[in-house]
Amino acid sequence: MRTIDDLDVAGKRVLVRADLNVPLQDGAITDDGRIRASLPTIEALRARGAKVIVCAHLGRPKGEVKPEFSLAPVARRLGELLGTDVAFASDVVGDSARAAAGGLADGAVALLENLRFEPGETSKDDAERGAFADRLAALAEVYVGDGFGAVHRRHASVYDVPRRLPHAAGGLIAAEVEVLRKLTEDVARPYAVALGGSKVSDKLGVIDNLLGKADRILIGGGMVFTFLKAQGHEVGKSLLEEDQLDTVRAYLRRAEEAGVEFVLPVDIVAATAFAADADHAAVPADAIPADRLGLDIGPESGKLFAARLADARTVFWNGPMGVFEMEPYSHGTRAVAQGLIDSGAFTVVGGGDSAAAVRQLGFDEAAFSHISTGGGASLEYLEGKTLPGLQALED
Ligand SMILES: Nc1ncnc2c1ncn2[C@@H]1O[C@H](COP(=O)(O)OP(=O)(O)OP(=O)(O)O)[C@@H](O)[C@H]1O
Ligand SMILES: O=C(O)[C@H](O)COP(=O)(O)O
């Protein structure tokens, strides 16, 4: 992959695809890790006299303009961190974007509005995506792919725009790939993978491939309940992917045949509502009351998970074990984070919310071998898949 050092950027309009998909609460950014991770590439381009046009997505607004998914707060934070004004375009490829891009001085920075306000960005139709990519590419002369967390998406800004402009990988993508490559080549065993989070359907799929690679797979977060249900237990009002039950049963069978250990929670913190002040209690994993929903793995499970990580020599962890944003449901995530640290293994934490959890719960980032900005992206990379965003940069 070409890096930005291979590009001539002085005085040119450079479109940087970043991953600025940060957690927000009531319009305020609760963790700016992904913005910080994007700074080195933006700063390097500015220092070389580029006119930097940053583009990114926030959440999943599904092709509609939804003000709660505006990148405006991100533009403000980016400006603070860069110590310069960031011109914020109120659209993606319209008049405002063209004016912002066209008005940049050398070394100045603009941020476009949420790419996913445009249906073309995520469209599965090549022509619709291509037409949007044409308009996005027209804003710039050069493209830099640096949104590692989104490289697994065949989206216009990730996959189609680099095919239309001279392009290179930014420093973040280059650094992420270098670390993750180690996990696909020579893994020290036992190799444990801990999975959680809420993007259950995205992440159940990766287990297929992990069964041939990992020695142990620990399951927490929202995906637990599809496993518990597949084992015949009731899960109350918890997150559930009914249509994945057969898939999960097949995973459990294959794991047994292949000698891969699935570690499932033995207890669950079940609450009456998705709220910090809801009535909640730890219950056995096979006895979740019908009117409750599971929001964390329970204390016994925290101990079990830490014990199954203790002798691992490599650990990859993606997805919080519970709704860590609310204190009563943060303990499972804390236990697993501590388990990674205590294991002394080569530890990689991947994902926007997973990395945010580590920081919010007060852990020292340096205690982990690598904190990746990509969750789904790093999992798919570890599967050995060709990721659209990396493929486009290599071509
Ligand atoms: N039992 C649960 N029920 C509902 N939500 C849960 C549960 N456990 C964890 N979560 C939520 O999962 C979210 C994070 O999931 P997600 O899959 O997005 O992880 P991630 O680390 O950000 O990975 P990616 O980068 O792929 O998005 C958190 O906001 C957390 O509250
Ligand atoms: O949060 C992430 O993992 C990335 O920003 C990609 O977001 P997506 O899962 O909504 O495509």
Automatic annotation (TrEMBL):
Q: What is this protein called?
A: Phosphoglycerate kinase
- Report the coiled-coil segments: none
Reactions accelerated catalytically: (2R)-3-phosphoglycerate + ATP = (2R)-3-phospho-glyceroyl phosphate + ADP
Q: Which UniProt keywords apply?
A: ATP-binding, Cytoplasm, Glycolysis, Kinase, Nucleotide-binding, Transferase
User: Gene3D superfamilies per the record?
Assistant: Phosphoglycerate kinase, N-terminal domain (3.40.50.1260)
Tell me which Pfam families the record gives: PGK
Q: What is its main location?
A: cytoplasm
> Pathway membership of this protein?
Carbohydrate degradation; glycolysis; pyruvate from D-glyceraldehyde 3-phosphate: step 2/5
Q: What is the species of this protein?
A: Actinomadura meyerae
Q: Where does ATP bind?
A: K203, G294, E325, G351, G352, D353, S354
Q: Please verify whether the record's keywords include Cytoplasm.
A: yes
Question: Record's family?
Answer: Belongs to the phosphoglycerate kinase family.
InterPro entries assigned to the protein according to its UniProt record, in alphabetical order? Phosphoglycerate_kinase (IPR001576), Phosphoglycerate_kinase_CS (IPR015911), Phosphoglycerate_kinase_N (IPR015824), Phosphoglycerate_kinase_sf (IPR036043)
- Which positions bind substrate? D19, L20, N21, R34, H57, L58, G59, R60, R116, R153
